[in-house]
Amino acid sequence: QVHFVESGGGLVQPGGSLRLSCAASGFTFSRFSGRWYRQAPGKERELVAGISSTGGNTDYADSVKGRFTISRDNAKNTIYLQMNSLKPEDTAVYYCNMFGTWGQGIQVTVSS
Length: 112
Description:
Helix content is 0%, strand content 51%. By secondary structure, it is an all-beta fold. The strands form 2 sheets. Strands 2, 4, 5, 6, 9, 10 and 11 form a 7-stranded mixed β-sheet that branches. The chain is globular, with a radius of gyration of 13 Å.
């Protein structure tokens, strides 16, 4: 059974950092690309970052380029999202997604 466990969210001040993790199980993790999305209150879910199955290719939304880094460890079946220089507008529920299956989401709040 496919299962994702997201962790690492929380409350952080503007300019701070967080690292999100998405631990996967129930499928051959290394065969699939992965993505992080986010959904802010009252807004549509948006793509934040993506990574290829090997980790060799990544892409980012313009709003997070230069601040966020997506990575993966195929030995640990985990995708990460390192978020630096966080802004209040980064506040959202963050979701990992692989082959169309969603994690449960994790709250990130950026506020002073």
